[in-house]
Structures are given as structure tokens and as C-alpha cells.
From TrEMBL:
It comes from Chenopodium quinoa (Quinoa). This is GH18 domain-containing protein. One of its GO terms (cellular component) is extracellular region. Residues 1-222 form the GH18 domain. It holds the Pfam family Glyco_hydro_18. GO terms for molecular function: chitin binding; chitinase activity. The keyword Aminoacyl-tRNA synthetase does not apply. One of its GO terms (biological process) is carbohydrate metabolic process. Keywords: Glycoprotein, Glycosidase, Hydrolase, Signal. Coiled coil: none annotated. InterPro entries: Chitinase_II/V-like_cat, Chitinase_insertion_sf, GH, Glyco_hydro18_cat, Glycosyl_Hydrlase_18. Belongs to the glycosyl hydrolase 18 family. Chitinase class V subfamily.
């Protein structure tokens, strides 16, 4: 992390000297700790980057959490369990570390993460699961378009959870957490009301007829 601080400082100096119109950004972890022993150099980041794209997604996936598995939203704005694994807790942690709100951009996913339910009748958040589900797409990360097709083709149950700020859908033992238009609108409104520099999506080509992109743009406004 010391080397990262040095790199950013030297990079900014080179831009000032050679190409002052260039914008320097980075997409970073949802909170300013890369792991339990490595903390990002917040001062160097604040001093040298034009903004930070905060990757407020991929909090949970079966490939990097330990069993027993339960269904979890991978990009919740809030975490009512108190574990502080959420977009809002990550933004707060970056601000507390010294990176101002106007240099932070909130990331939103245009894809979901699918889990395999143990019992199709128990399908809430934190319901028992066996592992990821690749019914929709291999690897368990379907695009928004694939999720909407799955809902339509399987008459899937759709739920919006305002405590977490996430959507999920399920049919049989397939359970998918994702962001729909209501979730996107709530997240973008959060970014705007907290004076963040904006929002970004990963990734645009996973949208369906620009539904999420349009809702985000309309919510942010001018």
C-alpha cells in the first residue's frame, strides 16, 4: 500500500507535467480495506485521484464464502444484520478514511448472483442454500436481461426488500439476487442525497432495453 501511494503521487505529477487534461480514477473495493491486514492509502487516493469508483457489489458469492451457505444479496445498499457489508457502510468507511464524498462514485450491478435453495418454500434472504446455481448461466452470474427472461418464462416470485435495498426472484430451487429499477432508483437517490460524485454500472451491455440505465439517469436528474 505504501507503493500504491507512491505510484499515485508520481502518476499525478506526470499528468500535471505532460497531460494536464487527463482524468485519473480507480475502481476500488467497496471499503478502504483490501483485506484484514491491508488498508488503502486514503490520503494519496484523495490527493491524486479525480474520483474513486466504489465497487459496491460482489459482497458475497458461494465461491468465496464458507458453508453453511445461505442466500445473500451481493450488492445490498444496507445491511440490517449489522455486519456492515453494504454499499452505504462502504461509502461511510471511505469518507471516514478521508476521501470526501464528492470524490466517490457508487457502483451498481446490472447482473445478479444465483444460489441453489435447500427448500424452495423457504426463499427469503438468509434462507439455507447448497451452493451457487448455474441454471440461468454457467457460474451463477446472470445479466439483468437473463434474469428478466427467467422471471417471465418461469412465472418466478419477485420480491423487493427495502431493508437491504435489493431484489430477488425465485422459482423452484433457483434464487437470484439482483437490482431492478426500484433498487437502482433507491441507490442513485442515495448517491445524490449524500453528495457523491455520481454512480456507475457494471456493465451497460447487461441491461435490458436500457431500463436500468434510464431509471438511473432519470433519478439522478440534471
Amino acid at each position: 500500500m505504501d507503493n500504491m501511494a507512491t505510484l499515485l503521487t508520481e502518476w499525478r505529477a506526470a499528468i500535471k507535467a505532460q497531460a494536464p487534461n487527463l482524468i485519473l480514477t480507480a475502481a476500488l473495493h467497496f471499503r478502504p480495506m483490501a483485506n484484514s491486514v491491508a488498508t488503502f492509502p486514503a490520503k494519496a487516493i484523495s490527493d491524486n485521484l479525480d474520483w474513486v469508483n466504489v465497487m459496491a457489489y460482489d459482497f458475497y458469492a458461494s465461491s468465496w464464502v464458507r458453508p453453511p451457505y445461505v442466500t445473500r444479496p451481493h450488492a445490498a445498499l444496507n445491511d440490517p444484520t449489522g455486519a456492515k457489508v453494504s454499499g452505504s457502510s462502504g461509502i461511510a468507511a471511505w469518507i471516514n478514511a478521508g476521501v470526501p464524498a464528492n470524490k466517490l462514485v457508487l457502483g451498481v450491478p446490472f447482473y445478479g448472483r444465483a444460489w441453489q435453495l435447500v427448500d424452495p418454500n423457504n426463499h427469503g434472504i438468509l434462507a439455507p442454500a447448497t451452493n451457487f446455481n448455474d441454471t440461468l448461466v454457467k457460474g451463477g452470474t446472470p445479466s439483468y436481461k437473463q434474469i428478466k427472461d427467467f422471471i417471465s418464462q418461469n412465472d418466478a416470485t419477485v420480491v423487493y426488500n427495502s431493508s437491504y435495498v435489493t431484489n430477488y426472484c425465485c422459482s423452484g430451487t433457483t434464487w437470484v439476487a439482483y437490482d431492478d429499477t426500484q433498487t437502482i432508483a433507491t441507490k442513485v437517490a442515495y448517491a445524490k442525497s449524500n453528495a457523491l460524485n455520481g454512480y456507475f454500472a457494471w456493465k451497460i451491455n447487461q441491461d435490458l432495453n436500457w431500463a436500468l440505465s434510464t431509471k438511473a439517469s432519470q433519478t439522478w436528474g440534471s
